[in-house]
Amino acid sequence: MREALEEARRALLAGEVPIGAVVALAGEIIGRGYNRPISGHDPTAHAEIVALRAAATRAGNYRLGETTLYVTVEPCLMCVGAMVHARIGTLVFGTSEPKTGAISSTIKALEHPFLNHRFEVVSGVLDADCRALLQEFFRGRRV
Asked: Which active-site residues does the annotation give?
């Protein structure tokens, strides 16, 4: 999660919402990403998507079974869908997202009965650090 926080700090420096993600396989990071929708003019350039794309390229396969995706903030529905399609093994996230989180906050996407893949979820890892980075960003925007 500390590596995902470093990615989130890169987003903060770039003027993006500070969310970072890394994909690990057997203890090795194979994909990294931070939010880039503003700078990339790409609504799909969420940290999770960027990290999954990098991991799939490195693995030479869009199926990322046995991987763990670490992300600083609870993923949105689009990102959960990408994780299902990638067949990740585990999601670890830092802080919940009460407006768009699709794991446990706004909806529980993994409880949809027709999903063809589910993954383990671990939440609250370095919650305070992940939340503080978001609060710093939004506090600066509201001034």
From this structure: 48
